[in-house]
């Protein structure tokens, strides 16, 4: 009975470890996908406002192309920007060529007669080709145009489809506007291929997969290529391309769209776990972020192998009655104990002890460039806890941790120090780059409200930043943290929602 109880406890630990890891991966993926898609919606709203105010002329194709070029240069999430008119006029610019550094434009004029001009440009902006051949394309027949016209004044998202211009799968975000010259629809294209490239960076286990789907079950994006054949010219359904593990989950759910939550199921005698999280891309339209893997991938870290139970049984039977409890304790997952000792239970980030250990390692290791230590706290978090309770506060910290983690670059180290306080260690080529990366984390936190139980909580964060002088060997990790924390405290007295660098805040500012 004791052996059976220990086995049950070990299996429960494995399930808990798998669920925790997948939930954290799903949070990171969903926050990134939501943030990634949000840019397209914001661009459409900005262009619509500029056109409504007259800053961007609905009748100036050349001016629109210049505006679109600036947007594509500054917003990597966008694949294309467009304007369609009720009389059939059309202005469009998208990425083109190797590494998407070139540009492809299409301008359709209808007065005094229909004329279609397509142009291509290289990465330097030099015109490489131009054609004025007849083209039957009509923006008024496209899904994005019809949907936007049917919901005038609102931002709409199309179902995934194949772009006519590039032949690539994607979605279009659009909004209609009434102008003196007639109705205009402003839109932005997002290629699904770019979402897939993002998912490939999610550190899923060797046998797991992250994916994005919609309410109709389309295979929008995945972290690894699907084993099934995709149908040319259309977005396949998950059922048509899924691997056996996902197909088993789809069969179990018996519906096109997977239900949110954690799912446990068996495939050919192997236990799998899946976490499904919803992402609202517009009111009434929800996509799903899914992450799944066999639970054996989480018994000794991602990709690890579980020690066979039969080995435990043999050792226990061969050993003496006095020795077998020791053997059983030794076979319990040591990785789980290590994880508990180094990981913040709420966010899945390194805890204070683990972060300080990494900081001390960086202080010993030196390195070229600039090394920055930032301490953050959340502006407005206390009001969430006091008004809505600790459950809401915990959910907010979950979301904020995922947003911060998603904004990091390779080599950055993020940890939770406790409460609503986080710390970030950044190694970069210059102090300016360090500061920009810390500002990027602040932007990720404040980009949109955190929704908990239907209530939107608008949050921001303030950071104190200290640049570590590795030649100043007399300072400990605790002293460096104190310097960054002091910059934060003094800076918040002057203004919240920004990065305050140590030395910017002097003593006289304490009394302002």
From TrEMBL:
Location in the cell: Cell membrane
Major localisation: membrane
InterPro entries to which the protein is assigned, alphabetical: dCache_1, Diguanylate_Cyclase, GGDEF_dom, Nucleotide_cyclase, Rev_trsase/Diguanyl_cyclase, Sensor-like_sf
Transmembrane segments: 309-328
Pfam families documented for this protein: dCache_1 (PF02743), GGDEF (PF00990)
Keyword Transcription: no
Membrane topology: Multi-pass membrane protein
Record key words, sorted: Cell membrane, Membrane, Transmembrane, Transmembrane helix
Residues spanning the signal sequence: none
PROSITE patterns for this protein: GGDEF
Domain GGDEF span(s) in chain numbering: 369-504
PANTHER family hit by this protein: DIGUANYLATE CYCLASE DGCM-RELATED, REGULATORY COMPONENTS OF SENSORY TRANSDUCTION SYSTEM
Name of the protein in its database record: GGDEF domain-containing protein
Biological source species: Deinococcus depolymerans
């Amino acid at each position: 009975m004791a052996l059976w109880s220990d086995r049950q406890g070990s299996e429960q630990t494995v399930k808990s470890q798998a669920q925790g890891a997948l939930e954290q991966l799903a949070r990171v993926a969903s926050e990134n996908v939501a943030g990634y898609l949000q840019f397209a919606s914001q661009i459409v709203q900005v262009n619509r406002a500029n056109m409504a105010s007259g800053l961007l002329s609905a009748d100036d194709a050349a001016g629109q192309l210049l505006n679109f070029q600036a947007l594509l240069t500054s917003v990597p999430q966008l694949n294309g920007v467009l304007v369609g008119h009720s009389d059939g006029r059309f202005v469009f610019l998208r990425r083109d060529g190797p590494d998407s550094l070139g540009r492809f434009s299409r301008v359709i004029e209808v007065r005094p007669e229909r004329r279609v001009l397509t142009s291509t440009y290289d990465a330097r902006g030099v015109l490489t080709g131009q054609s004025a051949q007849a083209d039957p394309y009509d923006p008024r027949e496209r899904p994005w145009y019809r949907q936007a016209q049917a919901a005038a004044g609102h931002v709409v998202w199309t179902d995934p489809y194949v772009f006519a211009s590039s032949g690539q799968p994607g979605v279009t975000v659009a909004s209609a506007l009434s102008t003196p010259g007639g109705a205009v629809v402003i839109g932005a294209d997002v290629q699904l291929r770019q979402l897939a490239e993002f998912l490939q960076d999610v550190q899923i286990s060797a046998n797991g997969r992250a994916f994005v789907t919609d309410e109709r079950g389309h295979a929008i994006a995945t972290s690894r290529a699907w084993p099934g054949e995709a149908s040319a010219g259309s977005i396949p359904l998950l059922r048509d391309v899924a691997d056996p593990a996902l197909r088993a989950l789809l069969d179990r759910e018996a519906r096109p769209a997977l239900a949110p939550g954690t799912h446990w199921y068996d495939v050919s005698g192997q236990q799998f776990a899946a976490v499904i999280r919803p992402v609202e891309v517009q009111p009434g339209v929800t996509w799903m972020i899914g992450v799944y893997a066999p639970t054996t991938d989480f018994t000794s870290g991602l990709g690890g192998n579980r020690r066979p139970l039969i080995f435990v049984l043999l050792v226990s039977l061969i050993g003496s009655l006095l020795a077998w409890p020791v053997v059983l304790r030794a076979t319990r997952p040591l990785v789980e104990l290590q994880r508990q000792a180094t990981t913040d239970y709420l966010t899945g980030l390194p805890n204070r002890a683990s972060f300080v250990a990494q900081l001390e390692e960086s202080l010993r290791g030196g390195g070229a460039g600039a090394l920055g230590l930032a301490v953050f706290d959340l502006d407005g978090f206390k009001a969430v806890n006091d008004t809505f309770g600790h459950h809401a506060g915990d959910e907010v910290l979950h979301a904020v941790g995922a947003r911060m983690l998603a904004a990091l670059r390779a080599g950055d180290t993020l940890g939770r120090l406790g409460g609503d306080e986080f710390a970030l260690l950044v190694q970069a080529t210059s102090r300016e780059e360090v500061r920009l990366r810390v500002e990027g984390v602040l932007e990720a936190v404040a980009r949109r409200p955190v929704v908990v139980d239907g209530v939107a909580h608008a949050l921001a964060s303030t950071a104190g930043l200290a640049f570590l002088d590795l030649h100043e060997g007399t300072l400990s990790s605790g002293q460096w943290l104190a310097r960054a924390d002091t910059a934060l405290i003094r800076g918040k007295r002057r203004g919240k929602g920004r990065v305050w660098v140590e030395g910017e805040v002097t003593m006289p500012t304490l009394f302002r």
